[in-house]
């Protein structure tokens, strides 16, 4: 993986996310150059400097976009606001829970994303799915090239530990499904995005609790084929997705972009400082995500985060993928997930290596080849098109 900050994986990971999710390399270099030295102090120190740098970059784009709007150049303004939303989202992602400006920055990122979506007339619509006393927010991308009145297959994309629906929609997944005749739903499930930040919904190890209402909503959608609903989990979604498919039989197939078979073991390894963390202030972050008051409380919740004894319930096609050089989640977990899918009518395991590219965690080093391969596999299972 390209590491802008050679001694700091976590800061480089956020930078790489920006580069592969719609960011501009010149803008990113301008933000990151002045904080190179701060990155040498480690993951956690200096994250406020990171925040100020990336907020500043986003603010500059907003000012340029406002000038575009004054001239009536809505498309140009929309593109700039989209990158500003990304940079503000990255700035928020890197802060500790409790950082005083974090929620305001998150709301600002949502607002900029929405303005960008409207100005660019993007194939992307915000939706709200009833859940408990509130809702789960999603982004719906409609399949391309379908005759009027045709119901399309759809893929539900599940976040990882620290991703959001906006981040994943701006990845290669924002267009690769639609081009293959598949719609896509990017969802902020409990523990992520709006569900966590705006509604206080912590992560739920029993993912079928929220996956079921999502499927209910999709099956009632006039543009969705209720018999062709697939699921894709990214990063910690490599736990959420298989669990959801195992206990929600209405999913027609499933896939993971990074297996996460035993997250409880991963936490024990991280306590021993083995492997890389995805975000700074890691233990504060996971306690927030899981609604834990203490470390003991969090570790007790994490004990339920494994797939042993679950995957024999999966009776639909399933794809397991993993980067050969994943420094967060060891490759062996992909083999464990694959080996336990004993009742799948079709199961495939793909390890991304130096030849294919995408060897790092969820292929964040090079998502294009890996993402298109996953999209082709899902299109083949759901009756989309690959030609």
Describe this structure in words.
This protein has helices spanning 9-20, 25-32, 36-39, 47-70, 74-93, 102-120, 165-169, 173-176, 193-197, 208-219, 237-247, 263-271, 282-289, 295-302, 332-340, 367-382, and strands at residues 125-131, 134-141, 152-158, 183-187, 224-234, 253-257, 318-323, 347-352. With 387 residues, the protein is α/β, with parallel strands linked by helices. The chain has 2 domains: 9-118, acylaminoacyl peptidase (de novo design (two linked rop proteins), Up-down Bundle); 125-382, 3-Layer(aba) Sandwich (Rossmann fold). It has an 8-stranded mixed beta sheet with strand order 1-2-4-3-5-6-7-8, with helices on both faces. α15 links the parallel β7 (318-323) and β8 (347-352). α1 (9-20) runs antiparallel to α5 (74-93), α5 runs antiparallel to α6 and α10 packs across α11. The protein is globular and about 55 Å long. The mean pLDDT is 97. This is Alpha/beta hydrolase family protein. Residues 214-383 form the Peptidase S9 prolyl oligopeptidase catalytic domain. GO terms for molecular function: serine-type peptidase activity.
